[in-house]
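Incident review: delayed structure delivery

Summary: a single-chain prediction request sat in the queue longer than the usual turnaround. Root cause was a stuck worker, restarted by the on-call engineer. No data loss occurred. The affected request and its eventual output are reproduced below so the record is complete for anyone auditing the incident later.

Affected input:
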Amino acid sequence: MNNKKKGGIKGKRQHIAERSGKPAQKNTRAKDGRSASSRPKPAADIKARRAQKTKTSPQSLGDNSQYIQWFPGHMTRTKRQIQSDLKLVDAVAEIIDARLPLSSRNPDLSELIGGKPRIILMNKCDLADPKVTKKWVEYFKKQGLRAIELDCKSGRGLGGFVTAVRDVLSEKIIAWEAKGMKNHSLRVMIVGIPNVGKSSFINRISNSSKAKVEDRPGVTRGNQWFTLDKNIELLDTPGVLWPKFDDQAVGERLAFTGAVKDQIMDVEQLSLRLLEYMQKNINPVFLERFSLDAEEISQLPPHELLELIARKRGMLISGGNPDTERAAVMVLDEFRAAKLGRITLELPEE
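Output delivered after worker restart:
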């Protein structure tokens, strides 16, 4: 009975092939019921494809670079939500990281925001080189954008936010008052990439602790309204990265500052890239922090420098070998906390 049924199916395939003029398709399903294309690939094949991907990845940055991409599903939803909510607000405040003012700006936001008045809030200026931050403020001014230096932890610069909002919306305010609409509420949307400080900014400026704040990307998931004095309302939005880092240097800089999750990367490899940068841009605080000599480390391969730092910090494993994994995490943590110096990774002239 079963053999007859199987033969009938085969004859039907042959019959269809003859009518279409195409060769009959072979049954590609395995005994487990899965098609050949869905069955697991041999380990050697997987390794070969990974190696090829690494070899052909754009913007190769060197032996220690890695191809960084991160675009979770909620990012797509966030973009749609921002686009939908723009009609509810009068202006947009874009929070960026003062250590990487261009890399921390989502290029998709400009298209989403369109002609809405915009303010640039340069957060974490306490971690960035103050002289370079001043240059960036002038850079944005030349682009027709109002930029404010902020440190949301200490509150520095927050006093200028309300004034800046009223300045960029001055024409609207005049128009409303001409219609008898005095003290009209000014609504501002807060946007930015993950872990750039949106929730910290809102909590500090509204004297509220309602916005959830954590030092990891992707914490704020829903939109919330917050009211300030002087008739200003803020709309918080989740952080949104862009679908693809066309320039892998951008993805790397974001990873240095923690805007991309450490869990999706090789942290030790990332720390080697950061040490390469520190070797090319010697900072006296960095040298003092690890008791290093500039001339000594200038010729060291990054992995040997990481081993040296591990030994100097007493991070050893069995046999007296340096614990480079632990040292890598420490280097990234201390960079993010400005313990290696106030460093800005991008210059306007570049």
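Verification: The chain has a mean pLDDT of 79.
Action items: add queue-age alerting; document worker restart procedure.
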